[in-house]
Amino acid sequence: MDLQTLTYVIVGLTFSLYIGIAFWARAGSTKEFYVAGGDINPIHNGMATAADWMSAASFISMAGLIAFMGYGGSVFLMGWTGGYVILALLVAPYLRKYGKFTVPEFIGDRYYSHAARAVAVLCLIICSVTYVIGQMKGVGVAFSRFLQVDYDTGLYVGMIIVLFYAVLGGMKGITYTQIAQYCVLIMAYTIPAIFISLQLTGNPIPQLGLGSTLVGSDVYLLDRLDQVVTDLGFREYTTDVRLSGLNMFAFTLSLMIGTAGLPHVIIRFFTVSSVQGARSSAGWALVFIAILYTTAPAVAGMARLNFIQTLEPEPGQYLRIDERPQWFRNWEKTGLLGFEDKNNDGRIQYSADAERNEMTTFDQDIMVLANPEIAGLPNWVIALVAAGGLAAALSTAAGLLLAISSAISHDLLKGIFTPGITEKQELLASRVTMALAVLGAGYLGLHPPGFAAGTVALAFGLAASSIFPALMMGIFSKSVTREGAVAGMICGIGVTLFYVFQHKGIMFIPGTDFLGDTAANWFLGIEPNAFGVVGALVNFIVALAVSRVSAPPPLHVQELVESIRIPSGATIHYEDKT
């Protein structure tokens, strides 16, 4: 069976599975729509959380970024996995003990204020919308190549799929769909990695293959990679830091605390039946995530080596234009890969020198999807990767859209503006809101901001600067007041957005591009995508300072904080300072 037919068959089967699960697990109540009934098995929830977490950024973009950033790309591995440790220890069990539906609901109750809840909703929407742009791009990239449709058509199809199973099933349908999507995406990621590791090193375990010698040689794979990239004028792969040590630290920490503040991930821990279930879910999620994240460096290094050796089969002997392989021609059709024969020698020269480099168009997001084709793997493996990339993008998009929908329907509509509506009316409002959110996400996917490729990391910075500090202070401090929390969230996300606007343009206006600022103009050399950690620090300082000059929280709020933190049956001590 040819590749195109096989791709249609495999992708069609997986989509049929998702839709069938959504129909079977459709929500019949607001509890099922928001938290899947609250009785999901921790292992199943861990698998669904992993799928919700491992977005198109993880599946498609991360290895591509590491492939071209080298050592500097480790910020994503350390930040995104380390954040789950924080989430498991400091957030998930406490919010589960609180026992309601959403993050803004907790913030509203803890800070005894509709204003705090509304600000939390605003921050949630900003973070989630920023994040969903990257997912929509992932859908468009995957469809444009493997289904041979244009980018816009791919997005329309993806929107229809998400609209069906998210609106029909809510969190219940999304949870069971994400379990299936995790199985698809993890097989699609690891199977090609095993094949390629065997080809290059003879070791079937990619994590070990990355540190092994090449087949028929005593040269280590990473040493060979360092040699070929430096020969082309690039910096050494294994030592190339991301701008500076301070920037790498800030970037890693921003991703870590952003992970613990992303609402679409936190909401998953409301779907289990107990605090112990929440801890167990976080542990299982980390295991399932680690399978992909420990494989990613091997995928990145091997993909970069194969790509360079395609363009330069022999040192100084570049690929002839009329001999470029079929995979190269296929990706040219998408517009994501292109070249210009600047010196008219009939070859494609690849170099770090911009004036000599003839690879004029190269979208790093294609590396994982093109990797099996570059390595000459069987068609069924290539088709499986297409299904995996789509599963990753669709699973996270659904979780983000549900977070946006629940924030608007449950926190704003039910919680603030029309508290008297019935459960049936709230469920209808949730579905209508979800449908509108899908349409809005589709619009952003069709008309992305100029730097959409960086918005996923930016979303973590926004969550780090706004939601994470409010949660930490809400759980671990009885003295932080509503005035302090509101001021902290506004200042934290405000300074982060200002910094981004100042150095990267206005992210939410279609067509806006970079302003051309350089690292010399950055605060302490910290890039905009890493600035969330500074915003978080501002949030903490402002919230604590304002709380010191505000009236202390009322007695029932102190009791709420104690009840969340102290195990059942323990003696509770609190002080009324009013």
Question: What brief labels describe this structure?
Answer:
single chain, 578 residues, mainly alpha, Sodium/glucose cotransporter, two-stranded antiparallel ribbon, 4 strands, 1% strand
Q: What is the name of the CATH superfamily?
A: Sodium/glucose cotransporter
The CATH architecture name reads Up-down Bundle
Number of strands: 4
Helix and strand content put the structural class at mainly alpha
Mean pLDDT across residues = 82
Q: How many distinct helices?
A: 21
Distance between the termini: 76 Å
Q: What's the gyration radius in Å?
A: 24 Å
Order of strands across the biggest sheet? 1-3
- Structural domain tally: 1
Poorly predicted sequence stretches spanning 5 or more consecutive residues? 505-517, 568-572
Relative strand content: under 5%
Cα shape: globular
CATH fold type: Sodium/glucose cotransporter
Please provide the ordered H/E string of secondary-structure elements: HHHHHHHHHHHHHEHEEEHHHHHHH
Per CATH, the class reads Mainly Alpha
Task: Provide the helix percentage.
Answer: 55-70%
Largest sheet: 2 strands, antiparallel
